[in-house]
């Protein structure tokens, strides 16, 4: 069992370090801020990356939160809005791989979602711990919001009874002059 866990730990660590693949379809940072026409992207499609400057991390983001996506990077909840939209963007990742240093984040830290169309800059406004069955983190918000979730406690081995919820607000969108694709 330790070998199996070690393998997936390494796979997650590599997801943070490697360059993400080129998008298989254009990611959906809509400019101006509108809900993307690609709302129903296939599960597993590469959408962009989540950069966490404080941690020196750039983590690939994939559509879906199944184990297949979470092994490779961060998952985007399909029912949530796309980065750059007017709604609530929800991302999730494993605490023992891509988010192993998540506990170092503080209110005011930057998060950046990069797609082939834009870089959406967010500022962390809240960090809280909730029960693992708390679904209020998924509800629609009155203004554009990024919510990033992971299991908690961070260093617990085994199933975690809580979730760490980081909430951020957009502060700037940089449209790319020459999008890829």
TrEMBL record:
InterPro entries: Sortase, Sortase_D, Sortase_D_1, Sortase_dom-sf. CDD domains: Sortase_D_1. SUPFAM superfamilies: Sortase. Keywords: Hydrolase. The active site is at 94 (proton donor/acceptor), 151 (acyl-thioester intermediate). It holds the Pfam family Sortase. GO terms for molecular function: hydrolase activity. This is Sortase.
